[in-house]
Each structure stands twice: as structure tokens, then as C-alpha cells.
């Protein structure tokens, strides 16, 4: 069977003797793709007159090339568009017989369809059959790769079916399929064997299977245990012959999204009885802030020094006694200031005691090991002696307090939150991020962030804060919310991270709306569970910060005076909630998740409701500050969640743009949840941001704009149950600008 090389010109050749015969001949022409990439044309026709075939002539599309062969005969060229086939032996045909002549090795031009003629002549020069058929262009196929997943939930087991369309004919010997990232087996399949190596599964049939272009493959890989981390994953699929010829190859993507993790129920314990001498109701915020305030609470920078102090309780309620431990060496005065508005002065003196002798306390201890022998590097001043006891009585109106200790030359603070435990439900509860203050506290030379090797794996409240003049991150990030809420006379109460862990089940009984502060990063399981449960119970949550509920801690005992964090399994990674799996990221709970720490970026206002009352296009330099959150495409988003504000700043560790998204959603319970995604609300409200953030000092216009934004956010998140008056002028609170440590992008 000789091959005929074709060089085809533009001449057409059509065979039709009579219309009736042409119709009866039923000529059809089909094209299929061969394994070598050429096209096979098969001409078919019905015999109209009996006889012995001498030859069959067939038209081909103009522009066809190739080396043509056939079966049971030879092929020659009549013209550039007509081929002649002659049988290799005597072929007698009867009327009604169906002829089928294949032509191999053709390379068709683009275009079509083409009408092509066929004529078969007998050895007596009679027409056996003739007519014309239509050749449709060769159909081409794309891989059309798809992966069908029975259960696309991270950390669960699923079955996968890899699908692809064959684009080239051949004997299928293997299908190589990319597995989900970090998936594990055992893996099973059907109608063949499956082996796994390097993140790919290879399926092989029991024997090679002949496949044609257009055939649809469907290869199951069962028993795939997905990683706890999901997201958008790419899947490459390729099918080959035993010699490596590719029959199809392509890729697709699939989303693996983990729904919010189930949280344990947190019991709503009954409120304790009101101690004798303590009131059943407390003054309103308006009444309290009408009392005489003072600016004496402020510690000027000139009084910063080595004096240090801490309280033996993070918070207290009326009837408690709190011990104070001071390291000074001189007689000191101790004054307690309730923080608020107070005509712009920022605080009211509640209690005072002067001429208190102090000692120079011993150095704190550093030590401790985990159960498996790793160093905890815990810094503790529990070895200090008590300086005095402070009774929390009816004069201590619930609120946030700074205890100021001064010898006239040096001074420091010790923070305290006084709770309202009467059972009164307030409109608003503002939380203090005490666990996060402690993580960043480097007093005694160690913090969580000191270094990966020497940082603390256990942090205790039994030591002073070295940030914020002893206030932790209160002055740098949280006082602004307190100052603003009390300046507006809102029905507000307060507690700390420690109370969220201890009394989290009472959230719905304490307040209708919860404000989380600028930097509330460190959460225990009970803390996270309490927030989740409160949202399901209809409590509104405004996260007025970023990087919230990002790291996973465990309080060491019921006193909640210290907490542990796992920095040993995988360094900073294993300390995060997300290390438990995507279901535990912050985004499924609050709406967005941490990106990185940033140098200050400018936010430009839009027509969104958050900026109502602020001219569109107003620029707020430095408002995208501290750390920022972003809506990650690969993480769960609450149904109906909306991004209402977007911006960007520069990630300070790599110099790249870091996106910021402010989000809102309404939970099935009706609870409203807002995630601000920046640290800046609190510090802008008092025009005093941390000195090492590279944030321009907010001017009065920026302060007013942010005050308007926080008012709009409050009205929205409370669904109008909180009314914010606009007749109280804000003022810059007089205080030195403390530094606040900023973590790196790998630390969070």
C-alpha cells in the first residue's frame, strides 16, 4: 500500500450524474483524528448498479495535504482535489451494498463544511454509484478537566472523581492526577490500580484501553483525607499511552472551604449576690461624667523611669479587695482614676492614699518548663511583697481604671477594670484585651515576641506592664473607645478578656452589643466559644480592630492569672487558631482575617453609610494602621457578608501592599457583626496614636471624621437600639504618647 503525497491546489471536482441517483447513493463523509495528529476521511456510499469495481474517485477539500494511504487498494491523484482508489483484488458488488473507503494521513485545511463528490466505475465503464456528501470540519476537543468532590470540607474524608476529555486517540495506559494539598490516604479506585507519589495519584487500567478524541474519562480516587487547611486548589490531570504519548492534559481549580468550627456551649452562670454595702444600681454614664474630672491622672514623659507596679487582679467588682505590689524604694502616693470623658479631662479621682512606704522589689523570676521539657521562659514577679490593699467599694463606679503610683519624680500605672455584676443588662459592653496586653509585655526581659527561641510560652499577670507607662495597651489602643462612649453618655459597661473566658455565657444578659478593642489577638477556647454563642443568641459584635482571635491560648487554672501558648510544635505558626484548621480562622467568626502589620496608610472616604456625615473623598492619613484584616477568598464567608470599605497600606516587613477590608454581616439570629480591620479607631478618637507606628498625629478634622464613623458603626451594629448624640464636642486627651510594640508579619 503505497503512500501518496498530496500538493493540492484550488480546483474543485464534484461528481453528480443524476439528482435521483445522487440522492439514492446516500454519500456520507466522516473525519476522525488519528493518533499521529492526521485526519482519516471515510467515504461511504450505497451501490446503485451491480458490477465489478474498477475505481472510486473521491473529491477532497482544497488545500488538503499529507501522505495518503488506504486499505485493500492503492490511492493515486487525479487532480489536486480528486483522488482515485483502485482495489487490489476483484471486488464485485450488488445493488444496495454499502461501500466504505478510508483515506489515512490527510491534513485538512481550516474552514468547512465542504461538499465533496464520489463516483465508482465498473470494469465495463458503467457508473456503479455516484453522489456528493458533506464533510463537517474535524471536531477538536479541549481537555475540559473537572474534579467532582463528594465532600469538599477540609479535615474530612472525601471521594474524588477526576474527569477529562480525550483530545487524541490512543491506547490509554495511565492517568496522573494531582491530589489536594497535604491530603493523605488510604486511596482506593476501581477498574485499575492507584499509586501515590509526590502529591499525585497515578491510575493504571488492568490493560490499555483504546480511546478516541471526545471520550470522557472519569477516574475515581476514594478515601482521600483532606488537610485541615483548604482554599483554592489547582488540579492537573494528564492521560498517556504506555510510550508517554499525551492523550489529554489540563488543569482545573476547586474551592475547599471549611465552615465555622463547632464551639462548645458556654454555660450562663447566675450572677453572684450583691455584697453588703454595694448598690443594686449604678449611676448612668451621663450622671457619672457630669462629676468633676481631673487631668492629674496623666503621667508626663519626664516621670518615666524604673518604678513598676501591678495588681493581683485584672478586674474586680464591688466588695472585692485588690492588692497592689510596687517596686520603688521611696514613699509613694497611690490614686485610683476612673477613666471616662469628664468634660474632656479624661478621668475622675475615686480613691487615694499618700505616703505609702515601698521597697525595691527583687528581680522577677524567669523559668518553668512544659510537661515535655521545653522552656516556658515565664517572667513572674509573684515573689514581690504586697505594698497595700485597695478595697473596691460603692465609690468605685464600674468602668476602666488606672491606678497611678508616684513618688513625685517617677510614676507608673497599674490598670484595673471594675465590673457591674448586679445583673443589669446594658446597651453596650466594651472589652479590654488583657490577654493581648500580656503577650506584648516584655517586663523582665521576655515577652511572647522576644524571639522564637527565648520568647515566653507562658505569660502571667503577676508582673507589671512595660508598655503604655504601665497601662499595657490600654492608653495606646483602648482609652479612645472609653473616652468616646462616655462623652456620648452611652449606657456602657466593661470587662476584660479574663471575664470573657470566665463569664462568657452571661454575654447576652450583660449587653445587647459588644465592642472588641483595637488589638484583641489572644483567645482561649472559652473566649472564642462565648463570642460565637453570643452571636447565635442575638448579641451584636463590633470588632473595632484587627488581628482578633488570632492566637490560641489556654488559661492555666481557674484564677486566670497565667496562660499557655504552643510555640513548640511549629514555632509562631502553631500558636495561631488557624493552625487548628481553616474552620478556626478569624474570618468565619468575624468576617475577615489577619494579613500583616503595616506602616500607616491613608483611607479615603466614600459614599458608604459608614461615612455618612463625612464628605466623600475626605482623606484620613494613617487610619489604616497597626495591623489589618482582609477577606481571604479561600476562607469561609458568612452568608450575606459585605465588604463596605477597602483600602491598602504597606506591609512593614516586606514592603508590599497589604489590603484592608471592613466587613459586615447579619447572622441568622439577627445579630449584626462588623469587622473594622484596622487598629486606628481608638487612637484617632483621642488624637494620640503609638509613636512608633509612623502614624501622623491625627488632627481635629480626622478625629471628628472617625468619631462620626464610630457613631455610624454603633447605630448600624446595634440595629438602632443605641442612639449616639452629636452634641458633645470631643477633645484631645492630655497624655504622653506611649510606644506600642508592633509584631512582624510572621508573628501577627
Number of helices: 10
Distance between termini? Answer: 75 Å
Largest sheet: 9 strands, mixed
Query: Averaging pLDDT over every residue, what do you get?
Result: 93
The percentage helix is 10-25%
**Spatial ordering of strands, largest sheet:** 34-32-35-37-45-44-43-41-42
Structural class: mainly beta
Which regions contain 5 or more consecutive residues with pLDDT less than 50? 6-17
What are the SSEs and their pairings?
Blueprint: E1 4-7, H1 19-25, E2 28-33, E3 39-46, E4 51-59, E5 65-69, E6 73-79, E7 82-87, E8 92-93, E9 98-107, E10 114-122, E11 127-135, E12 146-149, E13 157-165, E14 170-172, E15 174-178, E16 192-197, E17 200-205, E18 209-211, E19 216-225, E20 231-240, E21 246-256, H2 285-289, E22 308-311, E23 315-317, E24 321-327, E25 332-339, E26 347-356, E27 365-369, E28 375-380, E29 388-391, E30 399-406, E31 411-419, E32 426-432, H3 434-439, E33 458-460, H4 474-487, E34 492-496, H5 497-503, H6 507-510, E35 511-516, E36 522-523, H7 525-536, E37 540-543, E38 551-552, E39 554-555, E40 562-564, H8 587-590, E41 593-604, E42 619-630, E43 642-651, E44 657-666, E45 672-675, H9 680-685, H10 700-717
Parallel strand pairs: 23-31, 32-34, 32-35, 35-37, 36-38, 37-45
Antiparallel strand pairs: 1-5, 2-3, 3-9, 4-7, 4-8, 4-10, 5-9, 6-7, 10-11, 12-13, 13-19, 14-18, 15-17, 15-20, 16-17, 20-21, 22-24, 24-29, 25-26, 25-30, 27-28, 30-31, 33-40, 39-40, 41-42, 41-43, 43-44, 44-45
Helix pairs in contact: 5-7
